[in-house]
Design brief:
There is one protein chain. This protein is α+β, with helices and mostly antiparallel strands. The protein folds into 2 domains: 136 residues, no CATH class; 127 residues, Alpha-Beta Complex (FdhE-like fold), CATH 3.90.1670.10. It has a 6-stranded mixed beta sheet. Helix 7 crosses helix 8. The structure holds zinc ion (2 copies). The site of one zinc ion has 8 residues, from loops. The site of one zinc ion (ZN) has 8 residues, from loops.
Length: 282
């Protein structure tokens, strides 16, 4: 279906996220050498199925507050260099670094207690959106180390054990992106927070479970067969998807999600929602 939505992102937008991802990868490698992880939990699929909760809320994750503080401070230096246009706002967070209760912040981030974080930002007169972005991106390398231990177990057949397909079974973050595997077209959801992938049914709405024939359709834009929107006529939900089959190639799913913001705009223009607000409000 042709569209007039411009596919051009603001200058430097994608490059910024690409640098951020590389920076986080480097931090993850450094942390990995030093981080003491609790014993790996056996049979994670059985655990999440039994509790119907993301694994991290069952096992907990111990993060050394001092290591998190250091990573947050380093991230702010990196961001100020990358984004001089918002340096003043980032410096306002920097000035508060010595006042935070890091153990509490880590707990709230793991619980994804957005309300707490928003209120804290407001009390410090910092934009809640920026505050959460910075704090959450600083915890991601830790989450990715934790998640990496379980990814092989979680990768396939999760849908038989997990009936919340838009929620990451490891860290509990909401996913807005999936891929269809080149070799067999099976669908895997992707978590851009901890990099876990989990299988979900190919033709079933991830928001409401609708699988009625004809009630799930897909839209792609001209000259791009790989990036698609799956839309559900029952709940008016949408899911962005990278289909590996046209190119036969995998892609960086973290960047593909950002690169396809035009698909979010297109979906919203057509009256579909990724139901993100439902999740934030929880
Ligand atoms: Zn996750
Ligand atoms: Zn639906």
């Amino acid at each position: 279906m042709p569209s007039n939505i411009p596919v051009q992102l603001p200058n430097g937008y994608l490059e910024f996220f690409s640098s951020l991802e590389s920076w986080q990868n480097e931090q993850q490698i450094k942390l990995q050498a030093n981080m003491q992880l609790a014993q790996v939990v056996e049979e994670p699929l059985r655990k999440i199925a039994k509790h119907r909760r993301p694994l991290i809320t069952i096992t907990g994750l111990e993060i050394d507050p001092e290591r998190y503080r250091q990573l947050l401070a380093d991230l702010l230096v990196f961001l100020i260099e990358q984004r001089p246009d918002i340096a003043a706002s980032l410096e306002a967070i920097q000035q508060q670094l010595s006042s935070f209760d890091y153990a509490l912040l880590i707990t709230r981030l793991i619980e994804q207690d957005m309300k707490y974080l928003q209120e804290l930002a407001r009390s410090l007169k910092i934009s809640p959106q920026l505050f959460i972005f910075v704090l959450d991106h600083a915890i991601r390398p830790f989450l990715r180390i934790y998640a990496a231990q379980y990814q092989a177990d979680i990768f396939e057949y999760t849908y038989q054990n997990w009936d919340l397909p838009t929620i990451c079974p490891i860290c509990g973050s909401k996913s807005h992106f999936s891929r269809l595997r080149a070799e067999d077209g099976r669908r895997f959801m992707f978590c851009d927070r901890c990099f876990t992938e989990w299988e979900t049914r190919y033709l079933e709405c991830v928001h409401c479970g609708n699988d009625e024939p004809g009630k799930i359709n897909y839209i792609s834009v001209e000259n791009d067969a790989s990036n698609q929107l799956y839309i559900c006529e029952k709940c008016r939900g949408y899911l962005k998807t990278y289909d590996e089959r046209p190119s036969g190639m995998p892609t960086d799913l973290f960047l593909a999600n950002i690169q396809t913001i035009y698909l979010d705009l297109l979906a919203e223009e057509k009256g579909y929602s990724n139901h993100n607000d439902d999740w934030i409000a929880q």
